[in-house]
Specification:
By secondary structure, the protein is of the alpha/beta class. The chain has 4 helices and 5 strands. α1 links the parallel β1 and β2.
């Protein structure tokens, strides 16, 4: 069980097995996790007041991860993003990073690499929230 007030990791990936694997790794790390199969599901959920980050698959049905990153920026929704993909290339990685992504991991990745990126993203969000207060 995740403690109340724990940082929240949002996961958007159309692969149910990948969502479950990420959820399991993050929950073992003491983090609250909310998972979605499409980018369109994400805005319907309320973001917590505490630190959060988004683990976002590049290849999604409907709105791609890169397009969703742009939509979030256009809506001034500030959340650190960690991209994951099974089919990445250098131009895609560069585009994501130039648009503000914190990390770009290629599947299959090690749980520890993902958890390290999540911790870095949550720390970044925590600092940004403190500066905004």
């Amino acid at each position: 069980m995740t403690p109340a007030g724990a940082p929240t990791v949002f996961v958007i990936d159309d692969d149910a097995a990948m969502r479950a694997a990420i959820r399991g790794a993050a929950e073992v790390g003491g983090l609250a996790v909310r998972v979605y199969g499409t980018a369109e599901e994400f805005p319907r959920s309320k973001r917590p007041d505490g630190p959060s980050c988004l683990v976002l698959d590049v290849s999604l049905p409907g709105v791609s991860g890169l397009d969703f990153q742009r939509q979030l920026a256009d809506a001034d929704i500030q959340i650190p993003i960690i991209f994951i993909t099974g089919h990445g290339d250098i131009p895609m990685t560069v585009k994501a990073m130039k648009s503000g992504a914190l990390e770009f991991l290629t599947k299959p990745f090690q749980d520890q690499d993902l958890l390290d990126a999540i911790r870095q993203a949550l720390d970044r969000d925590r600092v940004a929230r403190q500066k905004a207060e």
